[in-house]
């Protein structure tokens, strides 16, 4: 019998995700005896909440790995993220224009840049905005759009349109996971599309990902990067993963512990 409330139906969809995997909109519509548009709204809401992850082709990848909120991820791998952020900050030169992604590691980089001079920084992330709001030597541009509560980042057509009017010396991207063959893994196709667009607008592309994220694919949305990008990770990164990225032509930088 179909659930009697919208919340019960969405909970049932998530339960099916953990047991049966993929299901199409049409199949879910028939199962719950509701219209396809109702199912699409359910799936959109569950994706925004981080309980599901989309794939291409009209199907839904019903994920058993809910997306953690930015608050939940703040304390995760703190020292590793700090080391990566400090390494990245040392690459930045006065007078540059930077593009910062949303996320905790890129947010840590924004904190490291608070004392910089003569920088212009555009960002899609609230964490970076908060860190740089009172930085005297930094001109801050906010690429607004639709706010994803879980990632505290802006996505969507307004964000993408703003990017078309800017170019950057460097872009620093975050990732839920990153693999040699597929690129950056995220929970939402809007995120991965935006990351691809961000990479195209910058001369130099950096992906900031601590060691536990290498080879990790928790979701089903991917950003494929151009060939000349740099992976910045930390000393915990597995040697096999480092060798695999280097063999594929990716430049890999290992941030030393303690920012030395």
Automatic annotation (TrEMBL):
Pfam families: DeoRC (PF00455), HTH_DeoR (PF08220). Residues 6-61 form the HTH deoR-type domain. Keywords: DNA-binding, Transcription, Transcription regulation. GO terms for molecular function: DNA binding. The keyword Disulfide bond does not apply. This is DeoR/GlpR family DNA-binding transcription regulator.
């Amino acid at each position: 019998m179909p659930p009697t409330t919208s919340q019960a139906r969405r909970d049932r969809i998530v339960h099916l995700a953990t047991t049966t995997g993929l299901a199409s909109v049409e199949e879910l519509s028939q199962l719950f005896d509701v219209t396809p548009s109702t199912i699409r709204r359910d799936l959109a809401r569950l994706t925004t909440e981080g309980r599901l992850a989309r794939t291409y082709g009209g199907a839904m990848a019903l994920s058993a790995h809910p997306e953690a909120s930015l608050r939940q991820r703040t304390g995760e791998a703190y020292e590793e993220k700090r080391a990566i952020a400090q390494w990245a900050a040392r690459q930045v030169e006065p007078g540059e224009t930077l593009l910062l992604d949303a996320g905790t590691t890129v947010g840590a980089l924004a904190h490291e840049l608070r004392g910089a001079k003569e920088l212009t920084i555009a960002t899609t992330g609230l964490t970076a905005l908060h860190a740089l709001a009172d930085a005297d030597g930094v001109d801050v541009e906010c690429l607004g759009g639709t706010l994803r509560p879980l990632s505290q980042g802006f996505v969507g057509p307004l964000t993408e349109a703003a990017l078309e009017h800017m170019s950057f010396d460097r872009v620093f991207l975050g990732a839920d996971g990153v693999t040699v063959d597929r690129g950056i893994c995220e929970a939402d196709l809007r995120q991965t599309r935006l990351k691809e667009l961000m990479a195209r607008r910058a001369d130099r592309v950096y992906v900031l990902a601590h060691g536990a994220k290498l080879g990790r694919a928790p979701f089903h949305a991917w950003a494929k990067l151009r060939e000349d990008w740099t992976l910045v990770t930390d000393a915990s990164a597995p040697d096999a993963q480092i060798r695999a990225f280097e063999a594929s032509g990716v430049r890999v930088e290992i941030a030393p512990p303690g920012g030395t």
